[in-house]
Design brief:
5% of the residues lie in helices and 67% in strands. The chain has two helices and twelve strands. Strands 1-2-3-4-5-6-7-8-9-10-11-12 form a twelve-stranded antiparallel beta sheet. A hairpin with a 2-residue loop joins strand 3 and strand 4. The radius of gyration is 21 Å and the shape is elongated. The model has no long low-confidence stretch (mean pLDDT 91).
């Protein structure tokens, strides 16, 4: 995909050319306002981007970057190192679940969540070799309703926390509670998404009549 960025970008600092064996020396404050990033797979356009960062010859330190992603607010902070290439980033957001589900049409055909998830994700590690980044996310949902073709009746009052290790492709549920036809239901356990699919889930509750 082709990415397209626009916005107001200001740099204030100094650049010293190599001299007497020393390399480039860069010290700059970076400020972004009214930024938009288009062409990002799944996410669509990211808008209202604003933030500040510090740029040196060794790294880009994002002090704070905020914007709107999938119609929901988010913030990003962390560091992108250049030599060797590596990242350590923290992402936080308040995500509308209905808008998130709509970004995945295959899942949206069967599942329709309504509610808010508080999301915190950490990405760290070297950029080379590819595929070795440690990427973990944590989401807390409150008072969520889930309907869809896979459910005869809606799940209501869904509360709990979900953790995902994207490197190992495992999802962990410490405790997820809700109600089915007014009866309490609790779910915990793990799901491994690498083939073959591995399920280790424990559900307790009352069978509704």
């Amino acid at each position: 995909p082709t990415w397209k960025a626009s916005g107001d970008l200001a740099l204030n600092g100094s650049v010293l050319a190599p001299h007497e064996g020393a390399g480039w020396a860069i010290h700059a404050q970076v400020r972004l306002a009214h930024g938009t990033l288009e062409g990002v797979p799944v996410a669509g356009p990211i808008t209202q981007m604003e933030g500040t960062a510090r740029l040196t010859e060794e790294s880009l330190e994002v002090e704070e970057l905020s914007g709107i992603l999938l119609d929901s607010p988010w913030k990003l902070e962390g560091t992108l190192a250049f030599r060797p290439a590596a990242v350590e980033l923290l992402f936080t957001g308040r995500q509308q679940l209905a808008r998130l589900a709509a970004a995945f049409p295959a899942a949206a055909q069967d599942w329709h969540p309504e509610g808010i998830a508080m999301v915190r994700a950490v990405c760290r590690g070297p950029l080379e070799p590819a595929g070795r980044l440690d990427f973990r996310s944590h989401a807390e949902v409150r008072h969520t309703i889930i309907t869809g073709a896979k459910l005869i009746d809606p799940l209501t009052d869904v509360d709990g926390a979900i953790d995902v290790d994207h490197l190992t492709q495992r999802l962990s549920i410490a405790s997820l509670t809700g109600r089915l036809r007014g009866e309490p239901l609790t779910l915990s356990g793990e799901v491994g998404f690498r083939p073959p699919l591995q399920l280790a889930l424990h559900a307790t509750g009352r069978a509704p009549c």
